[in-house]
Design goal:
Elements (H helix, E strand, L loop, with lengths): L1 H59 L4 H21 L1 H18 L4
């Protein structure tokens, strides 16, 4: 009987260590993906600002400066509106798939 209890204790210890390692691995993948998305978002915003100024300069050839700025602002508002309307397929679904795949798919 003592050997059975000893084996169960050692098995539970091994299982707990395995769960800790699995949780650490999945959490590190999740956090690294989150950091990568944040960095890419910041770079995208900088690029968007540069393109917006370039578009203002381009529109400035055809219209007054104030109107060019308002036009580019309107284009950016339309882009934000489209992103808001498509937030579920563009943001929510990929995040849900990532977390589901990461935490619910068994390791091969």
């Amino acid at each position: 009987m003592k050997s059975v209890v000893s084996e169960v204790k050692s098995w539970l210890t091994v299982e707990i260590e395995y769960l800790k390692l699995t949780a650490a691995e999945k959490l590190s993948v999740l956090l690294s993906t989150l950091i990568l998305v944040i960095v890419l978002f910041i770079v995208f915003m900088v690029v968007l600002i540069v393109f917006a100024f370039a578009l203002v300069d381009l529109f400035n050839l055809f219209m007054p400066h104030a109107l060019a700025c308002v036009t580019v602002g309107g284009i950016l508002l339309l882009l934000i509106g489209c992103l808001y309307l498509l937030r579920i397929p563009l943001v929510v679904n990929p995040i849900t798939r990532l977390i589901t795949k990461l935490f619910l798919t068994p390791k091969k």
